[in-house]
Write a structure and sequence with these properties.
single chain; 10 helices; 277 residues; disordered C terminus
Length: 277
């Protein structure tokens, strides 16, 4: 509930100071009266009247308090909070502080700042413990603050669970990637073994023997066959190769003999001179 403060004759009678201060306070109070009258009819004019009151006397508690209530009714909670805080700053009585703190609690509840509202209502009760409305609002603020705390804790738990799930998913993905890599390595090794096996089979003939060995055996068999095809010398006879070697030796011997005969002939010939004297 919003409660407006009205200027009383007692308050004016208590004014002290010089004439300028008294005149400023009087003008401020008059503007507050004007604003209170205009509030239900024209909010804009009422707001202007409260501002004039504050301009004449910046420390006026009533001007800031009533202007703050006007902003609250119109839903301008930020400006309303600022004006109530100014009212508390210049307040001189517990009644003024109690009402300002109470209204601050209401503003904070509208802004969903429940824990801060709890503190505001507590301050209001410190200045007037008998106000049941403030005590009731304090109970509501505590329930709201507890719910907000539970929701915050739940959000934190949900975030932790989400982070844990993300971490588990990352670990599972890493394990899967590792398995896939191992599977690829096995496939590569299998392909390599199959390729080596295929190459080995290509090097074997239909009977399963290595082709190179078969070729070597074939060559050896051909050589043996050629050797078998050549006529073998009979006992007491010369082989063709031996005959060939013997003929070559005889030819060489005959050539040496002929060369020796030719040399002897050359020695026996006398050389004639050009003139016979």
């Amino acid at each position: 509930m919003v409660t407006f403060l009205f200027v009383t004759g007692i308050f004016i009678a208590q004014e002290k100071g010089d004439q300028v201060e008294k005149l400023a306070m009087k003008k401020a109070n008059n503007y507050v009266y004007e604003g209170n009258k205009l509030y239900d009819e024209d909010f804009i004019k009422a707001e202007m009247a409260y501002r004039k009151a504050i301009s004449e006397q910046p420390s006026t508690v009533i001007g800031n308090y009533n202007l703050g209530n006007s902003y609250y009714e119109k839903g301008n909670y930020e400006e309303a909070l600022f004006r109530q805080q100014l009212a508390i700053k210049h307040a001189t009585s517990k009644l003024e502080k109690h009402r300002a703190y109470h209204n601050i609690g209401n503003i904070l509840m509208q802004n969903k700042k429940c824990q801060e509202a709890v503190e505001a209502y507590k301050n209001a009760l410190r200045n007037d413990p008998s106000d049941d409305e403030t005590r009731y609002n304090l109970g509501l603020a505590k329930i709201c603050a507890e719910q907000q705390k539970d929701q915050q804790d739940q959000n934190e738990d949900d975030k932790k669970d989400q982070d844990q799930n993300e971490e588990n998913k990352d670990q599972q993905q890493d394990q899967q990637d590792k398995k896939d890599q191992e599977g690829d390595n096995k496939d590569d090794k299998k392909d390599q073994n199959e390729e080596e096996k295929k190459e080995g089979e290509d090097q074997k003939d239909e009977s399963g023997e290595p082709k190179d060995e078969k070729q070597d055996k074939g060559k050896e068999g051909d050589q043996e066959q050629q050797e078998q095809q050549q006529p073998k010398p009979q006992p007491g006879q010369l082989s063709p190769q031996q005959v060939k070697s013997l003929l070559e030796a005889m030819n060489n011997q005959e050539q040496k003999v002929q060369e020796k005969i030719n040399e002897e002939k050359q020695k026996g010939i006398k050389v004639k001179s050009e003139k016979d004297w």
